[in-house]
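Forwarding the complex inputs:
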Amino acid sequence: MANIKVNDLNLWYGDFQALINVNAHFTQNKITAMIGPSGCGKSTLLRVFNRMNDLIDGVRQSGEVIIEGENIISEKTDLVLLRKKVGMVFQRPNPFPLSIYENIVFGQKVHAEGLTKLKLDEIVEASLKSVLLWDELKDKLNKSGLSLSLEQKQRLCIARLIAVRPEILLMDEPCSTLDPQATSRIEELMRELKNNYTIIIVTHNMQQAARVSDETGFMLLGELVEFGKTENIFTSPKDKRTEDYITGRYG
Amino acid sequence: MLRHLDEELKELHKEILKMAVFAQEAIYKSIESLKNRDKNMAQDVVNNDNKIDELELSIDEKCIDLIARYQPMAGDLRYITTGMKINAELERIADMAVDISQRSLGLMEKPMLKPLVDIPKLSQVAQNMVRDAIDAFVNRNANLARQVVLADSEADHLRNLVQDELVNEYLARDPKTAERGVALLLIARYLERICDHTTNIAEDVIYMVEAKVVKHHPEGLNN
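Prediction (whole assembly, two chains):
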């Protein structure tokens, strides 16, 4: 389990500054929700933690992001290891066009060679159990991951992350394509998973943030305006901008 | 940006103020009827209580409806939950006024035990506290609410004066005064309970405005 310490983080896309002096501490074994209007920098911040922004031309950043004592935005960071430690789930579930089994063991095959079939089977079972899919899918592991329902696909994507034993799970609007019942089940899964992982979720759904997170950060125009316990943010925010946003007066 | 919720909150506000007016009227009439031995006025207070009870239920329903439909946050959430609590306190205040009137009606069948001195004073303290607590709610004035909380000690003092006098000067000396004495003691007690309920309203207003819990934490009354 790891926490994330963000110190004076700034990020630019070319001339545009997307993150401005962000300072935050994401506590281990907690779910932290990042909320804010579109374009405020929440997903950009999320992508800093696994260096996905590196894939975008013209990105530069300054400051520190410390995970387990290491500044992960340093040039010396091993990105493959980082992305093993910090997994990400996206808005649209994206299982590989492979079988359910192959989806889960894919990461293991990248990171660890020479694993026996028995070991891989154990990993698949443990991963699917941790996302409560084992009973449903144990007799269908050879089915394509693409044949599952949206909710199952999202669970499969989480299982795929868990298979490589990350420390941190990043979730970028993980429920926005799901119906309310599926959303509720994924939220329950998140609550279970936080016992073993640090979870950061970006969401436009403030009620979801209020329901599922322990801490919440509100961002606006690249700044982290307010950060604190979820119950305090949603009952008595300190900053008027936070109050205006969460009461729907912003915009 | 004005939201539809703002319109609904305005309506809720009006209803809570209506409740406050009814409660204040009930206190005033209950003591005026006692002072003037006016049976009709006392009976009015008793008869009007149904109207107040119905309004309490309607306000509660509205608050729950707003929570369910709008999932309010922050200041809106504190306002609605405080509104629900104030609603309940005002209904209890009106019930105390009914109790006062019912005791008064019994007293009016008998000669006056003594001139009323401290009970009207206590009633005035209670009415002032209710007025100020509602004022604090309407104007979101946490400092005024704090003053209301602090005024409760004066109410307790006056109630003690009434109690001491009735027990020592009347009940202890002449058992035949027991029925009237106890009725007056109870009236003083009801007025003191009105002040307690008003203190609760004031504490809720402080929470609404400042998100600060002073209930059961009097040290929180310091700014």
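Chain B is about 80% helix and 0% strand.
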